[in-house]
């Protein structure tokens, strides 16, 4: 029986007009990058323009991308607003960069606001309302008290990022929603668990794993807050005394200082292990924030609960489709063991051929690790 060819499939629309065929004719590369937080998701396109006949897209055009494999439904990867266009050569080519369409200019405009005797959820709801977004805030975070908060010459995008850092959360905008969830928890704003994804070593072209004993170097984190009643500064300590890192900012309340110290200690612990994977066959269903398990590697890697921090899905001119994953430990030691805090003072981009469910290739038992795109295609029968 002849092997079934493996062909990437994809679709690109520009202001709702399907331009897949026009792009496919000269496609050099297409990359979708999914990042955590308000590090805006990004789409980059490189298209050959040997005759100079292609029309340069105007800034502001909304591109929508879907990726997958022939024989399987395409997976929508979001909407992107073109914000940079370049023409380079030789050989002549057009380079397009587009960022997540939901991250509008208004979110980056500086403003002055003050919030008193409120909650984190209420502040984020106010931000969402200003920009026509639906708030999707995890209940465990929404109720956190905010006695006082100043937004002085600060954009709403920066404010959301700052608040997320203080409580070890991720703030992002997806599909018209302001989403705010615990960082690395692998859950949606509604509390539902994101589906876990498993990657076997045989799926990978390469990998890199690292361990840093950052937790061993830092035993605790101190955050200073201003006690206005006593007219003096006090401190909250997360972790243990010893080698203590002190946060630079002075917080307006004890609760905010304690939350910031815990978040910083958790972030230090999270950085102990990191993992990078390059998948021989792209898996467009993988998204940032998703729980990840790996098999077939060393015990130090297989035994860790990972969470995807960043994922890049790339199509190339040779017909390859890969996914590059950056992951960190999902539940670092500070979270597992607990930490004390106390006062311290549609259309296919390929051509022809029968289709195949890529899942069958992942489960076929064939070792794809370390193979080039050409070698993978030959072994798959493309």
Relevant terms:
single chain, 382 residues, alpha+beta, Phage tail proteins - horseshoe like beta roll fold, Phage tail protein beta-alpha-beta fold, four-stranded mixed β-sheet, 10 helices, 22 strands
What does this structure look like?
This is Phage late control D family protein. Helices cover 19% and strands 42% of the residues. Strands 1, 2, 3, 4, 5, 6, 7, 13, 14, 18, 19, 20 and 21 form a 13-stranded mixed beta sheet that branches. It has a 4-stranded mixed beta sheet with strand order 17-15-16-22, with helices on one face. β1 and β2 form a beta hairpin. It is globular, with a radius of gyration of 23 Å. The longest helix has 17 residues. With 382 residues, it is α+β, with helices and mostly antiparallel strands. It folds into 4 domains: 93 residues, Baseplate protein-like domain - beta roll fold (Phage tail proteins - horseshoe like beta roll fold, Roll); 78 residues, Baseplate protein-like domains (Phage tail protein beta-alpha-beta fold, 3-Layer(bab) Sandwich), CATH 3.55.50; 83 residues, Pnp Oxidase, Chain A (Roll); 56 residues.
